[in-house]
Amino acid sequence: MKHPEIFQGNRREDKYFEGWYFKMVSGVNSGILSVIPGISISEDGEEQHAFIQLIDGNTTETWYFRFPIEDFYFSTADFAVRIGPNYFSADRLFLDLDQDGMQVKGEVLMGDKVAWPSAGVLNPGIMGWYRYVPFMQCYHGVVSMDHSLSGKINLGGKNYIFDKGRGYIEKDWGSSMPSSWIWIQTNHFETPGISFMLSVADVPWLGKSFTGFLGFFLKDGEVYNFASYTGAKLLFDSTSESKINLRILDSQHEYIVEAYRDGSGVLLAPSLGSMDRRISESIQAKLVLTIKDLKGKELYKGSSAVTGLELVGDLRALKDNLK
Fold it and tell me: Of 99, 35, 108, which is closest to residue 67 (Cα–Cα)?
């Protein structure tokens, strides 16, 4: 419970998924690559497999590599996962893939990680006390808000060199991704060491649903956490299939978020454990973030052209179901 970055599933027998999201941005040759390892177990338990999914942030191309569930190994003490010869942890990623004519091989090391500041049993991760609510559709964890990268990956003959790059790691697990959600993430502002993430989702609850959210802003080593469970408020200003404008108000700050995307790649996402839902993600979306105090004084303004952005499902329903 206190370590959401570790594998949570213990190979459940039905309708279960778990996946980690590694976002890697080169500091040398402008390569952008996200790698998503995980497992999928269908509702009836008949279809079980491990997978490694990749998306090129520049071209929006995606790849999905399947493995027998028996090729999935995990540590119960630390975040360490192996899928066949491929290895994933908070410190290292190693790929050795060869399927359907596509070969991927390489290693990337992560350093100077800024982990989520767990506050003990009552606040074990970014979900706060919601982490302990049973039977939730989906749980979320942040492994590293920002870190350095070194190494390279060769994907189909193309080299992604990640020396002097920046990375980010998070994860999800449960039975299904929400029916609708918004996800925004970047740690590529003008000033290094700044990171931002916001997740807004439709949350089933006692036969109905509500819109919940969580996120953070990292600057100068300090983490500002805002979420439904902290008492923060979310306000939608405008939404479309490619653009979102919203504000977050808490007891000290107003966060003004403007994000939009030009293109996106198609990824597979889980529904009742099965990876048969298609969603769009951009890793090269644009974000403008403005932070003010409650008197309107601007405390920070920054922009990023290397932003992860997912706008999935009925965004109007997310607005209507806000508490």
Answer: 99
Q: What is the reported pLDDT for 132?
A: 67
What are the CB-based long-range contacts (under 8 Å, 24+) for 113-121?
A: 113/144, 113/146, 113/147, 114/144, 114/145, 114/146, 114/147, 114/195, 114/218, 114/221, 115/90, 115/143, 115/144, 115/145, 116/141, 116/142, 116/143, 116/145, 116/223, 117/223, 118/2, 120/2, 121/1, 121/2
Among the listed residues 105, 191, 188, the one whose alpha carbon sits nearest the alpha carbon of residue 151: 105
Domain ranges of the chain: 16-320
Residue 137: how many CB atoms within 10 A of its CB?
17
- Mean pLDDT, consecutive 10-residue segments, the chain of 323 residues? 80 86 91 96 94 96 97 94 98 97 97 84 72 79 96 96 96 94 96 96 83 95 94 92 94 97 93 95 96 96 97 91 78
pTM, 2 dp: 0.95
Residue 173 bridge partners (DSSP) = 18, 139
User: Given this model, what pLDDT does residue 323 score?
Assistant: 66
pLDDT at 121: 63
The closest alpha carbon to 32, from 216, 185, 219, 218, belongs to 185
Nearest residue to 22 via CA among 104, 102, 95: 95
